[in-house]
Fold this sequence. Notes:
The chain has 163 residues and is mainly alpha-helical. It has 2 domains: 9-58, 2-Layer Sandwich (Herpes Virus-1), CATH 3.30.40.10; 80-108 and 119-162, no CATH class. It is built from 7 helices and 6 strands, in the order ββαββαββααααα. The chain binds zinc ion (3 copies). Residues 12, 14-15, 17, 28, 32, 34 line the site of one zinc ion.
Amino acid sequence: xxxxxxxxxxxxxxxxxxxxxxxxxxxxxxxxxxxxxxxxxxxxxxxxxxxxxxxxxxxxxxxxxxxxxxxxxxxxxxxxxxxxxxxxxxxxxxxxxxxxxxxxxxxxxxxxxxxxxxxxxxxxxxxxxxxxxxxxxxxxxxxxxxxxxxxxxxxxxxxxxxx
Length: 163
Ligand SMILES: [Zn+2]
Ligand SMILES: [Zn+2]
Ligand SMILES: [Zn+2]
């Protein structure tokens, strides 16, 4: 039986990298990005090159921070829905608190309730996107004021929103 030369040309069947038989089957396999490896957390096999992404985005058993604002709990990805379900009221309070901090008293139009009903709390993150509208429409409602008073009101509102 003839043994094949370990230094013969060889290329990785997974990624196509060329080298010697020895180097490809020896060291390269351990680092080949296309070699499938087991995720240490969920035991699923993934290509090595995608493992980091798998862990940070997809792995069910990877710990992730709860996406809800102000809730800093770490939860396994597979448990996040359960966590969200069990903590809806706490989460809502946390979000409402945050929204209240972000918007000002003059901006009472922000309605967190309808938002929560439509989208899961995760998507309310950064809830200050809609605090632009009311300043102008409100000044029209205050028809009883003189121009100077209106101006003062506008200015004080602006100060508040900039805080
Ligand atoms: Zn390879
Ligand atoms: Zn995994
Ligand atoms: Zn949470």
